[in-house]
Specification:
By secondary structure, the protein is an alpha/beta fold. 29% of the residues lie in helices and 10% in strands. The chain is elongated. About 15% of the residues have low confidence.
Length: 201
């Protein structure tokens, strides 16, 4: 370049070299640095309203305070009795299964000594074998409350199938419809046709 001395040329060349080195170093750092991932958005779920999941059970018979009570899912007959103020001295608790699970909309009838537990719509007793009485002739059987002996009355249902019905309703919190019997091992469409008019929920 005209007008520049040799020393000035060397100085400008050194400055250019330094700039090039700095630029190369910067680019190398950008390429080698890991890409930052934005944290995934976290969606906060709305807390479930558990009050809507509570069961409603109608407790009647030989109890201190008969009435409609709300209980937690998975509650047992003994829990419903406690809600109703406990059984009266006249109650015969041997006719009901205190350990049985209850279903929503169930009616729990606590019989007095000498009286048998009725079985039918809004049936009595516990969710897994309420009473020891035998249902009257042509009386529909409530599959959510009947004992194994009472289920044996159904056409084509023996002791093993009756026990499977009880095991299914205990595991699933009771039957929601008669058609749900088709989910019980040993009950197919043909057997269900035999018994569908003999059962109620």
């Amino acid at each position: 370049m005209p007008g520049l001395s040799r020393q000035q040329l060397i100085a400008w060349a050194a400055v250019g070299l330094v700039i090039l080195l700095i630029g190369a170093s910067y680019l190398r750092g950008q390429l080698s640095s890991p890409v930052r991932e934005e944290p995934a958005a976290v969606t906060l779920g709305i807390k479930e309203d558990r009050t809507s999941a509570r069961l409603k059970v109608h407790v009647v018979g030989a109890v201190a305070h008969p009435g409609l009570y709300e209980i937690e899912p998975g509650s047992r007959v003994a829990d419903a009795l406690e809600k109703a103020g406990g059984a009266t001295p006249a109650a015969d608790l041997n006719q009901i299964n205190l350990a049985a699970k209850l279903a929503d909309g169930q009616q729990l009838i606590v019989p007095e000594a000498g009286a048998s537990v009725a079985v039918g719509t809004g049936g009595a007793g516990s969710g897994a074998g309420g009473g020891s009485g035998t249902p009257a002739a042509n009386q529909p059987i409530n599959i959510n409350t009947a004992t194994a002996d009472q289920l044996n009355v159904l056409d084509g249902v023996g002791p093993k199938t009756a026990q499977k019905i009880i095991e299914y309703r205990e595991a699933n919190g009771g039957f929601k419809s008669a058609e749900e019997l088709l989910e019980v091992p040993g009950i197919g469409p043909a057997k269900f046709e035999q018994i569908k008019n003999q059962v109620v929920i």
